[in-house]
Amino acid sequence: MSFGDPNNPYGQPPQGQQPPYGQQPPYGQPNYGYPQAPQGVPPQYGYPQQPQPYGAYPPPGMPGMGGGMPPYAHWGRRVGAHLLDMLIILGPVYAIVGISAATSSTGEPSVGVFMSLFVLVYGLGMGIFQLVREGGTGQTIGKRALGICLLRETDGRPLGFGMAFVRKLAHILDSFACYLGWLWPLWDDKKQTFADKVCSTVVVRIK
């Protein structure tokens, strides 16, 4: 039965039948497309809500930051985190190299070979460990200690291992022109190095 049926003078759809697409139901009639919550019951308690339009959701960001990007980390914190990471990797390496040199001079070459192998395994393993942490969480040990985090500029999320590795290679650009790229965060609006700009990354302060 259609709405123009002379037997249906009030223009109301039959029971259980929805009005045509794009047409609102007559005044006082329920919206058959979305079940209505009882009077006084919030819609989130078991009743579906109206769909939100595209773009109505807040942009992603760090947890607890209200959907926005945290403030950019200043140059001093970045340098401190980098030096701490280098100390964690190179400190034990230099200590072991010194021990290896001392034992080699006493006529025990086998100890020196073992120490050299240990240095290689430790340095490579710790470097990969730091890269995995930085790609997965945005923080190396040094960055975590200094309260900073490496994120993608587009959505505020960690880079992943692959892009973290690419960013390390991109640091070659920072060493060109008398290491100008390493100093670029001192006056850049987003505190980015050349590697950050190429990889679309930012370093932010989270505490």
UniProtKB/TrEMBL annotation:
Keywords in alphabetical order, please: Cell membrane, Membrane, Transmembrane, Transmembrane helix
Q: What is its main location?
A: membrane
Q: Where in the cell is it found?
A: Cell membrane
- Could you tell me which residues belong to the region Disordered? 1-60
Transmembrane region positions? 79-99, 111-132
UniProt xrefs under InterPro entries: Pra-immunoreactive, RDD
Regarding the membrane, this protein is recorded as: Multi-pass membrane protein
Does the record bear Transmembrane in its keywords?
yes
Question: Which Pfam families is this protein grouped with?
Answer: RDD
Q: What spans are recorded as compositionally biased (Low complexity)?
A: 1-55
> Is Lipid metabolism tagged as a keyword?
no
Q: Which positions fall inside the RDD domain?
A: 72-199
Which superkingdom does the taxonomy of this entry point to?
Bacteria
Q: Which PANTHER family match?
A: PROLINE-RICH ANTIGEN HOMOLOG, PROLINE-RICH ANTIGEN HOMOLOG-RELATED
In its UniProt entry, what is this protein called? RDD domain-containing protein
